[in-house]
cysteine desulfurase
Amino acid sequence: MKSIYVDHAATSPTHPAVVEAMLPYFYESFGNPSSIHQFGRKTRQAIDEARAFLASTIRATEKEIIFTSGGTEADNLAMIGYASANKKKGKHIITTAIEHHALLHTCQHLEKKGFEVTYLKVAENGMISIEDLKSAVREDTILVSIMYGNNEVGTIQPILEIGQFLQEREVAFHTDAVQAYGIEEIDVKKMHIDFLSVSAHKINGPKGVGFLYAKNGKQIFANVFGGDQERKRRAGTENVPGIVGMKEAAKIAFAERATKREQYIAFRNRMLAIFEEHELVYKINGDENDFLPHILNVSFQGIGVESLLVNLDLAGIAASSGSACTAGSLEPSHVLAAMFENDKERIMSAVRFSFGLGNTIEEIERVAEETAKIIHRIKQ
């Protein structure tokens, strides 16, 4: 029986058209973009074209795009780079308790360097309180980082409202948009976003490449030292095949965005309908209105998540219990722990289904049916 992958929030398969676009840059157009000869000029042109297109997808300018090795490096560069360059203005940073570990561990590093970090709590729907944010901002606050859409439960934060408030206070605003990019419409100017992180492998691009949007005029110090690449903000010979692949993946993602959103909502609704048909006792984790359509996180009452995931895997279905970066760990999800402090059973019975390239309604129906069978079997 064919295996089914419903863990696209962890990583996504590379689109065949992306692979095709990348291939020439491995063996034909292989020049170093910093070289002045024709081999270098050709790859430089490819990077420039990719930078221009990717900038256009978030309403930014070409000079505001810094290519990185992925979302983690983009988060690091934004947080450490801006904090280091602006510590004379203050050393207070605000983030949330449900950020990706790429952001939380960066904040912990900054705390060791003398910065103070406030971690905002979230409600049971995974949403921060704007009032809590307003109360947390101080005279020495220099940077706020709040993820666009959560990678585990899909909750989308009130980014526009946050951006407007922080602009008035002249506090820099970073958002990790790794899960939202290619799914949500993002306008960094309209939303008053100063820094934004993106990763290619979440949108059917290659692993090992991403970008940081850094608003013109916002000074950051480099984290990687060497050459003068990326306008002296990120040293190292550019990953040309990866950058070309990311551009192609983004082109496909944005061309199909509306269709994919409808498809993912249909998947979500069909899966929940089957759960209802089988009279499963479950709770959806995340906000019921503001959510990423490709992520569905569900807690099944009385079911241990490890047993459920192992049985799903034996049935040829790949799902997840939360962040890919903690896969294999018995630690409860820090996101769910922040949302449900006093409900350990809900935390330990949560499964994340995430949809993407290649999934069909027939596959989703099979996933839901197998989930129901396994749950009934475990309870018996």
User: Anything to note?
Assistant: Residues 4-12+257-379 form a domain with the Aspartate Aminotransferase, domain 1 fold (CATH 3.90.1150.10).
